[in-house]
Amino acid sequence: MATVELTIAGRRHELACRDGEEAHLRGIAAMVDAKANEAARSMGGMSEARQMLFAALMMADELNDARAAAARAAAAPPETDPAIIDVVEWMAGRIEQLSALIDTAPSPAGAPPADPVVDAPPSRVETSPDSA
């Protein structure tokens, strides 16, 4: 076990932590110290217990806001890449062209229809030579 000395709201505290966690503990202690100092500046003249209470409430409020934002982000549908929309629209048009060819194709006894001129996919989409 390691021992870390921390200063929060002007008071020194000595805490034990697992080896290797000293930097993490100092970092989160600095966050608490900053909130405690913010509480003291904004409220002034309060007891240490009340200062820590306000610091804890401010940190809990920030955590609550972060959790709510994360929940909203998780619930929002992902954005669709415009290039994918272009390809899907091109494919839908190509399917309609092929459907029209099938509908107008001569009977099996007649000559096969000529190959249609095929539009290239949208230019923003890269295609490999194998997929062309």
From TrEMBL:
Gene Ontology annotations of biological process type: cell division
Pfam families found in the cross-reference section: ZapA (PF05164)
Keyword entries, A-Z: Cell cycle, Cell division
Region of interest (Disordered), residue spans: 103-132
Annotated protein name in UniProt: Cell division protein ZapA
Lineage: Bacteria, Pseudomonadati, Pseudomonadota, Alphaproteobacteria, Sphingomonadales
